[in-house]
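User: I'm putting together a small comparison set for a docking exercise, and I want a reference complex before I start. The sequence is below, and the ligand is MTE. Could you produce the 3D structure with the ligand included, as structure tokens?
Assistant: Of course. I'll restate your input first, then give the structure tokens for the complex.
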Amino acid sequence: MADDRPDLPLDEPAGEPVDAEGAGSPIGRRLVLGVGGLGVLGVLLGAKVQRGLDRALRPVTLRDGTGLTDLLPTAERFRIYSVTDGLPSMRDADYRLQVTGAVDAPATYTLEDLRTSLPQTKLVRDFQCVTGWRVPKVAWQGVLLRELLDRAGVHADATHVHFGSFDGAYTESLYLRDARRDDVIVAHQMLGKAVTLEHGGPVRLCVAPMYGYKSIKWLDRIEVTVGLIDQGYWEARGYDVEAWVGKSNGRSDAPIG
Ligand SMILES: Nc1nc2c(c(=O)[nH]1)N[C@H]1C(S)=C(S)[C@@H](COP(=O)(O)O)O[C@H]1N2
Ligand SMILES: [Mo]
């Protein structure tokens, strides 16, 4: 399946927290999994770090969805995840973001709207996946989610916000109070440039204080609701809806900086 298409990511490797199994010897267990090649191939190196040692390690990492290469000194880089068989793509000119649901004024935004018409917010924060990898000081730019919610006029009884992706599979959700935070943005820039296709471009969510799975890629729908309707892709598989880094999912990671 994947072997002849090494550039396409496959399953999200965060399906099981690696440390949950093989208590006492998680690393040995991971090594066994790596050698056994369970088809856990969904890891690609972020394009940003295709350099030096990273480049040398790339073939290893492509085959290692197990976290083994986290032991090597190149761990501070993004893995590219997709729960679908490949990466969806969208021309900038065709991109639309819908804001719907329990709001007075549903809206549709173009990429140009998000890039230029709406007030811009910048953020620099560590980014951490619930499987353990962390990238320090990632720069983001976009529009506060709160700004879009306020423009839409959220109904007084609304409690949650749901998110959809044009990959056709991934979904996410937030409590309305979390969605209104200053560090939750609808991002069109990441790492100092337009969000790349593999990182979820042209637009993804950045939920800075929470684990990476909340930051839905290829974002195209925001729906305000009364009550929680669909927790989200990984939440349906056991992960927390309120995914604070260091204070959820049974993990004790350092707070993000
Ligand atoms: N649409 C979509 N969004 C997604 C994912 C995904 O598989 N599909 N993976 C999530 C997870 S688990 C993480 S850690 C981050 C990873 O972002 P990256 O692929 O840009 O490194 O994206 C999140 N958003
Ligand atoms: Mo993740």
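The CA atoms of residues 161 and 224 lie 4 Å apart. Residues 1-63 have pLDDT under 50 and may be disordered.
User: Thanks, that's exactly what I needed.
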